[in-house]
Amino acid sequence: MASEASTGNGARIERQERLPARTEVDEVAPGIGRIQLPIMIPGLGHVNCYLLEDERGVALIDPGMPDPSTNQALVERLASIGIRPEQVHTVIVTHSHPDHFGGAGRLKVEHGCDVVAHRRFHTPFDPRDPLSPEADDLLELEAASDLISDGDAPDDLAAPRGRNERLERVLFGDGPIPEIPPQPTPWGEEGFRPGPGELEAMRAWDDLSKHGLLRLDPTIRVDDLDVIALGGREWQVLHTPGHTGDHICLLDPADGTFLSGDHVLPTITPHISGMTGSVDSLAEFVAALQRVSALSGVSKVLPAHGLPFDDLAGRVDDIIGHHVERLAEIERLGADLGDATVRQYSQRLFRERSWGPMAESETYAHLEHLRIDGRMSRRIDADGLARFRPSSG
Ligand SMILES: [Zn+2]
Ligand SMILES: [Zn+2]
After folding, report:
1. What is the pTM of this model?
2. Residue 174 CA to ligand 2 centre (angstroms)
3. Residues 284 and 384 in one domain
């Protein structure tokens, strides 16, 4: 997922990320295919699923949403180039958004492929806290159970807990669809929850799709600077938090091919979440942008949405510039608003059609960045809401 950029001058730019999914499979770099899959996320027209072929079969990067029609599109596009889904030996997931990880669970269950993701990979519907001390124990337990599993009982189908259990009841239950309570946020407002229409559509999915949305346990968890050999290339893993805490990019230093996921997109700025669990996700994001910008020899960027591009450093400059402008805009708003909630800032910062939890989450990330920088102060009022004002005001 990604949010639309504000151009700052009101100009409308044609966003490549909105283009509808092509049905053709294109070779976008030597030996790298691109399958475009449809998604139903506002502001986006497709997700790019990259395909790497080697002597073992194929690896896919980000196999799209978990719903049956996306899977059908994937199978058809693979068939158009003579590949059967059982030839998929590995799925790499760049981060924990459903348009990226969603299709992985089905491929894992149906074809026994490996699923590779960052060691902190954690879907929004998984009740386990990846930052809690016991999370590592859980991961170790899972690793142990994987070793003794015969492969017939996929661990994605294991009994869920907490929030997962609630969504599972909604998805799998009979009768009218009950309300899902909003996710609490650190700033006191209501967080994201699927709407009744979305829940209705998801309930019509088959069970594998529903499980694929709820939870995904990677078989291989990678960390920064690990190397994965796929498609006849040696990919270096770069942990690039900010858009999510578990985002990874992949670099082939041999020819400078860079799979950027949602970290760097060609014409929209990725959504920066205030819910990653990080103290300052904007600072983390900017640091991760500067890091990839400084990589030497990057010749081609293959993003998860939009078209390939060459100038990684130039695009990073634009994205950082956008956030610098946003920070200045928030300070100007603060001078006008005085003590104001995240929602109030957000509704001044974003156009009305973008209002909602995602805009608020991004606004919160910016406000917290300014607070940590000493430029804003925050207080939590009796109503539980955080209110921010400029430090000098
Ligand atoms: Zn995305
Ligand atoms: Zn995303």
Report:
1. 0.88
2. 31
3. no
